[in-house]
Write a structure and sequence with these properties.
The complex is a heterodimer of chains A (about 475) and B (about 250). Chain A has about 475 residues and is of the alpha+beta class. Chain A has a domain at about 185-400: Alpha-Beta Plaits. Chain A is about 25% helix and about 25% strand. Chain A has 13 helices and 22 strands. In chain A, the strands form five sheets. Chain A has an eight-stranded antiparallel beta sheet. In chain A, strands 1, 2, 3, 4 and 22 form a five-stranded mixed beta sheet that branches. The longest helix of chain A has 14 residues, at about 195-210. Chain A is globular. By secondary structure, chain B is α/β, with parallel strands linked by helices. Chain B has a single domain, classed as Rossmann fold. Chain B has helices at about 10-20, 35-45, 70-80, 95-100, 100-130, 150-170, 205-215, 225-235, 240-245; strands at about 1-5, 25-30, 55-60, 85, 135-140, 175-185, 220-225. A seven-stranded parallel beta sheet of chain B has the order 3-2-1-4-5-6-7, sandwiched between helices. In chain B, strand 5 (about 135-140), helix 6 and strand 6 (about 175-185) form a beta-alpha-beta unit. Chain B starts with a strand and ends with a helix. The chains are: A alpha+beta (about 475), B alpha/beta (about 250).
Chain lengths: ~475, ~250
């Protein structure tokens, strides 16, 4: 019998890339009996969805995408873990429901949204996705299938929300969808001259607007450092919304890998200036398609190919309110002192911590930057992490590919409590990922001898060497 | 239309079922496992904005011809008149696996050929008795020509395709529309783990092509489209070449 072929698996950043077999079936319960990790659409940026070094297999959830029930009175949707947000939006937007919390892409599964306890532009008001999850069905380490909720097996529930799939395989999710007044968004965007004005405007807007987000130019220096566009939004009132539903969006795609050096400091600076001056009017407002508003980057499929074969990493950190209003400027200056540039720099406002024990957000701001991966990326992430630790912040595991275990421990005072629950449900640490080996010090597949071939980039996979990227 | 769908819980059948309910057709599901059928029925109800329990289902196993009449009785009872019967169910295994496992080979031949033909016999008699209707059956491009990677599976599908062609010739004048769907490589749970060719299909797109074939009463539909061209070339290749290539 022919053995199923290994394939190249990676997160959205395409670093690292490993050879492994993704087991796929409509029957998720049947393929999760002896596999150490589940994977959804692979949109986490780093190594969270990749099997640990000695493991060959990962269970893919995407074919398990049935809706099991929907109650229009309560808004509670129950579905198999592989159902994508894209399908949820497609099916429920015109019925007056939307995900209670939306990340920046629709290409995520329900299971992934729970495992990363995703947040969105409305975190300061709505919190994280996990707060709306009413129950989970999980295959735990001893093989049993357990139902848990905020009231039943609460520890397992809290450890699974934001637990990066390390407490078990999420098989089914029940979540309360949000009722919306119309399927359109009303937005107002303002051009802001520098980072301090941006942070002040962000905090002020968050008091009155349910959704706030902004992009800043992290390449400008001095007075204009962090100039940007702040976007405020809310669901449009039926009276102001167009009388028809938002039409389906056309799909465009980056068809192949672009050269690795294309995204460099020069092009990033030009791109940032263009983004800023495209918003020439000081204030813009109006009605916008919800997909353009929530998922601007989804308009171009495979946009990660723009970074070429060497891939990208996203660094997202939370800087707490206690760090003071100047912390964003200090962060950007540190980045610049390392000659790091990012085409997109997103800064969001955050409210109270959610119920997930390892959930990323807490009151403060988060900064997300994309770096083309290169020789200096590890040193850059180390330096940023040391800054974040000093300021009392933390990083988002769904994005992370480079954080060291010692740094993660220093950021996470909650880790001991989470690990105690994990020990109770999975004493042998059967569930593990490449990320958990890196940041939690898990054993890479005890007892296995065969290590899968690892491909960091083109130069180590025997292909023609990629040009060294100049950024980061 | 009121449609009976055999094999709605997985793969192309699942995608087709979702498209049909979203286009406001009424469905009744047939399949092997009652619990799995019920889960798919709930999925279709929510996706089609239907009330709870409005999509019915009944157990039906292509390996057990005894199950066919009661299953179709239940479908008739639930739907009233049946406009179309769609059969997407079947077994698949690689040639290597089948060569190593004669028991499974017997089972596959029973399900994909004997069972499917017997089911179609029951279904087409009922459709004809009610004045006509559509019988849409998923065969495969594997049945186009004897090929190394699909010798046994292809033989079953070749027999099925011949049967469907004959049905069309005999009964098209009496109101029976027979539609033979010939999928090429489509990315589903059935083909998971196999290396996908560059022109592999997506089940949701295939579902749209199948619905178009049903609406336009196309007797044979290759899905996705490029497979018609590929199989045209394959049919023309001389034996000497077929012996050499591994496609």
């Amino acid at each position: 019998m022919r053995r199923p072929r290994d394939e190249k698996l990676s997160g959205w950043g395409r670093v690292p890339t490993v050879s492994a077999h993704q087991v796929l079936s409509e029957d998720l319960a049947s393929i999760t009996t002896d596999v150490p990790l589940s994977r959804g659409l692979g949109r986490s940026y780093g190594d969270a969805s990749l099997p640990a070094q000695g493991d060959r297999r990962v269970a893919g959830s995407v074919l398990a995408d049935r809706i099991l029930s929907f109650d229009p009175d309560s808004g509670i949707l129950r579905a198999e873990a592989g159902l994508s947000l894209r399908e949820i939006v497609r099916l429920f937007l015109t019925r007056g429901f939307f995900t209670p919390v939306s990340p920046g892409t629709q290409f995520v599964t329900l299971g992934g949204m729970v495992a990363a306890d995703i947040h969105g532009k409305g975190h300061h008001r709505d919190g994280c996705f996990g707060q709306y999850v009413t129950s989970l069905r999980i295959r735990v380490a001893d093989g049993r299938i357990i139902d848990c909720s905020p009231t039943k097996e609460r520890d397992l529930f809290r450890a699974t929300i934001g637990g990066m799939g390390l407490t078990g395989h999420i098989l089914e999710v029940a979540v309360r969808l949000k009722r919306i007044p119309s399927p359109w968004i009303y937005f107002e965007s303002v051009r802001v001259p520098d980072i301090d004005a941006y942070i002040a405007a962000l905090k002020e807007s968050s008091a009155t607007w349910p959704q706030t987000v902004g992009f800043i130019d992290c390449t400008k220096r001095g007075r204009s450092l962090g100039r940007g566009i702040l976007i405020k939004g809310r669901w449009a009132d039926p009276k102001e919304a167009p009388p028809f539903p938002p039409p389906p969006k056309r799909e465009r795609s980056v068809p192949f890998d672009l050269p690795s050096g294309l995204i460099n400091r020069l092009s990033i600076r030009a791109f940032n200036a263009l983004t800023y001056w495209k918003h020439y009017a000081p204030v813009k407002r109006g009605i916008i398609h919800p997909e353009s508003y929530f998922y601007p980057l989804d308009a171009v499929l495979h946009w990660n190919r723009a970074y070429g074969r060497r891939g990208l990493t996203q660094y997202q950190c939370l800087l707490p309110n206690e760090a003071g209003p100047g912390v964003a400027r200090r962060f950007l200056e540190l980045m610049q002192s390392h000659h790091a540039a990012s085409p997109v720099c997103v800064i969001k406002d955050h409210g109270p911590q959610g119920i997930g024990l390892l959930s990323f957000p807490r009151p403060g701001i988060s900064i997300a930057v994309d770096f083309a991966v290169g020789d200096r990326t590890q040193a850059l992430v180390d330096a940023l992490n040391e800054f974040v630790i000093r300021e009392g912040g933390r990083v988002y595991l769904a994005k992370d590919a480079f954080t060291r275990a010692a740094h993660f421990r220093a950021m996470e005072p909650r880790l001991a409590e989470w690990e105690a629950i994990r020990r109770r449900w999975d004493p042998e640490r059967k569930f593990r990922s490449r990320q958990s080996v890196r940041v939690l010090g898990d054993d890479p597949a005890p007892g296995t001898t065969r290590v899968p071939e690892e491909v960091h980039d083109a130069s180590s996979s025997g292909l023609s060497p990629a040009p060294r990227s100049r950024t980061a | 239309m009121k449609i009976v769908l055999l094999g709605a819980t997985k793969g192309m059948g699942r995608s087709l079922g979702r498209l049909l309910v979203e286009r406001k057709h009424d469905l009744f599901l047939l399949g092997r496992e009652a619990q799995d059928l019920a889960r798919s029925a709930r999925d279709f109800e929510v996706r089609g904005s239907r009330p709870l329990n409005s999509v019915g289902s009944a157990p039906c196993d292509l390996a057990h011809p005894d199950s066919f009449p009661p299953a179709l009785d239940a479908a008739e009872k639930a739907l009233g008149k049946i406009d179309a019967v769609i059969v997407t169910g079947g077994l698949f295994a690689t040639q290597d696996k089948l060569e190593a496992d004669p028991d499974f080979t017997a089972q596959l031949l029973q399900v994909d050929f004997t069972g499917t033909v017997l089911f179609c016999e029951v279904a087409r008699k009922r459709l004809l008795a009610a004045g006509g209707g559509t019988l849409c059956v998923f065969s495969s491009v594997a049945g186009e020509r004897g090929r190394k990677p699909v010798i046994i599976y292809g033989a079953a599908k070749a027999g099925l395709s011949h049967y469907l062609e004959g049905l069309d010739h005999k009964f098209s004048g009496q109101g029976l529309t027979v539609i033979n769907i010939k999928p090429g490589f489509v990315k589903t749970g059935m083909t998971a783990g196999l290396p996908a060719p560059p022109f592999a299909g997506d089940p949701d797109k295939v579902a749209k092509l199948v619905l178009t074939a049903i609406e336009k009463k196309k007797p044979v539909a290759y899905v996705p489209g490029p497979w018609a061209l590929i199989m045209f070339v394959i049919r023309l290749l001389p034996r000497a070449i077929m012996r050499k290539i591994s496609f």
